[in-house]
Amino acid sequence: MKKTFFVLSTIILFTTVLSAQSFQTFVTRVLNAPDTAKTRIVDSFMTANTKLPYFENDTTVYFIYRGNMTSVSVAGDANEWSAYTMTMTKLPSTTLWYMKRNYPSDSRLDYKIVTNGANWILDPKNPYQCSGGYGPNSELRMPGYVPAPEIDYSASIAHGTLKDTTMFSAGLNSSRLIRVYTPPTYSSTNDSFPVVLVHDGIDYLTLGKANNVLDFLIANNRIRPIIAVFVPAVDRTPEYAGGKIVTFSNFIVNEVMAYVDTRFRTMKDPHYRAVMGASYGGNISLYMAANYPHVFGNVAPQSSYIDATLSSGFQNNPKLDLKLYLDIGTYDIGSLIPMVRNFIPILQSKGYDYLYREFHEGHSWGNWRAHMDIALEYFFPGTALEVHEENGPIPTTFELQQNYPNPFNPTTNFRFKISDFGFVSLRIYNVVGQEVATLVNKEFHPGTYTTTWDASGQPSGIYIIRLEQGNEVQVQKMVLMR
Asked: What is the pLDDT of residue 14?
């Protein structure tokens, strides 16, 4: 989900920074001071700034490290984890090292500090960390970045159940743990449920917090209740993008999905089934959707490697009955970005139903876990995302009208106009800038639309509704009065 409403938090940050000093003012003061005073000035700066990195405005950041080292650098998403391309400068006659960088205001990037060219450490004064495949990394959160609320465990909502089984594949000659998520309502109804199969499944649970995401989306009616099947990789590269891809796909379709369909109440129509994964996991997801569209009608490759034969297959073969979600980080692995970007015109030319997003993030679990909700909402929208189109002429302007009624208790209606085709979000925030609801999060054709918000469970007060499409943004205030 794109979390872009940051006006209040940005104002608070700017006030804090500007009330102190610019970083260059501090550097100049140190440079002009006698050597006997430099350490005292640095001490004062470090005491005043208990959290680092140091932000000077919404796009400027200073990485800062203090230590008696011969070299200090930053390695992370922004430079494909090179220890040599982002070097810090040492303030003369001090042990303070710094480096200035500019990133888009909503960027979120993983990184580590590298000292003496060999010691990779977390940024000592940065409280934010993000788990990755090789352990925790420090997390750069630019001022406009708002953390995704769905990744955190919430004790106040109902939780689904995870069940494990071990399956042996004769073709792959290996066993693996299959973990199945059933939604909170599974045992209290006789309903059948849509299914999403997730590659690198255990990583999506442990690093991607996928069960928290599912619980949150279901509890807030942003997706319909679904079953999720988490399958880990055993021989990852051959299975996902190499010589075992056919055998592995047969294992998933003929054994794993057959087991799930026998054991659980699943919807068999491919329109209610999705497959997803990240990096090479995106490649195997696309492969399965392309070769088994009668099984998976939806596919979500995140930061995906896309084999050339897959691209040419989508280009040259007849259009399949598929719905696709794809994303990529603008600081992702350099070879993957053109793969994904070049795949989009193929989908456009063939008339596929797809949604494509780019985020100012890297090739990381922090990126994937915060945006898997977009794919799930796109494939399996819940009642909270219901939108109704009105009959009438095509609007010529982008407009968010005042909600009605206002004040309201507990429901209110929104009417908005879209003049161009594109991705639209309609989100609600409280007065401290925290997102409390997403009402719209998908592509729209030009038209006039209405939707409703049920604020049950929210406290009385002022709320802000924000409509966004590309560079167009409109905001309205409203009052919940109980």
From this structure: 35
Locate tokens 């490649």: which residue?
283
- Domain 7-147: give its CATH superfamily: Immunoglobulins (2.60.40.10)
pTM of the model: 0.83
Nearest residue to 385 via CA among 235, 172, 223: 223
At 352, which amino acid appears? Y
The SS3 of residue 108 is strand
Backbone torsion region of residue 209, taken as left when φ is above 0, otherwise alpha when ψ lies between -120 and 50, otherwise beta = left
Contact 468, 439 (CB under 8 A): no
User: What residues does 297 pair with on adjacent strands?
Assistant: none
What is the reported pLDDT for 156? 92
| Max CA separation in the chain (angstroms) | 78
pLDDT digits (tens, 9 = 90+) for 292-342: 999 999 999 999 999 999 999 999 999 999 999 999 999 999 999 999 999
- Give the integer Cα–Cα distance in Å for 400 and 482: 25
77 close to 362: Cβ distance less than 8 angstroms: yes
CA 62, 63, 67, 71 dihedral sign is negative
Distance from C-alpha of 414 to C-alpha of 480, rounded to nearest angstrom: 14
What values do phi and psi take at 198, rounded to 5? Answer: -120, 120
- In sequence order, the β-bridge partners of residue 111 are 76, 138
| Three-state DSSP state, 417 | strand
For the chain, first and last CA: distance in Å? 30
Assign domain 150-383 one CATH number from 3.40.50.1820, 3.40.50.1980, 3.40.50.970, 2.40.30.10: 3.40.50.1820
285-306 as b/e, with b when 16 or more CB fall inside 10 Å?
bbbbbbbbeebbbbbbbbbbbb
Beta strand 227-231 with 195-199 is: parallel
CA-wise closest residue to 94 among 51, 43, 21: 43
